[in-house]
Design brief:
By secondary structure, this protein is mainly α. Helices cover 79% and strands 2% of the residues. It has a two-stranded antiparallel sheet.
Amino acid sequence: LAGGIILGVALWLRHDSQTTNILYLQLGDKQAPNTFYVGIYILIAVGAVMMFVGFLGCYGAIQESQCLLGTFFTCLVILFACEVAAGIWGFVNKDQIAKDVKQFYDQAFQQALMAESDMNNGKAVVKTFHETLDCCGPDNAVGAITPLWRDDLCPKKESILKNIFESSNCHKKIDELFSGKLYLIGIAAIVVAVIMIFEMILSMVLCCGIRNSSIY
């Protein structure tokens, strides 16, 4: 059940419309940074393997097989080590992921403002960011006045005043998007780690109980 829940959360994060809209973008020959998906793929793999290992442990407990329970314990140790490594990787890269996406957006924004922007897909990339995140412009002076003179790039509001006061910069929105998703990944990883620790303890207790009972 825990494996199924983790797998479900990971698949939901993987196919979330906001992240997929942004991370599948391509600016000329350059692909949007998709380092974020590394953590998602690790969660998917852990969830799927946990489901299989769970059946192994359950069957081993029913059969009272020390071999199956020992294999179950070994698999859990390996999964736990992979998850700790993934957690360390995520903690180290949590700021870098949003930074890379913001740099990609800034490059597209600069191209969209250039006179020859019709020669590349910078405008299309920027519009996708703006429509997906409901924002307009980077975190600087140019971004602050963009809604006033580039209504072809920004989500259209009902009035000029709404453009000024309701349009938030995209750097802030990108930070909010990825910090929220990484927060969910972190919670899922902690829950899995706690469950794994209990599973390892209980499998060893059961294995020792079976071994002791076979002596008598």
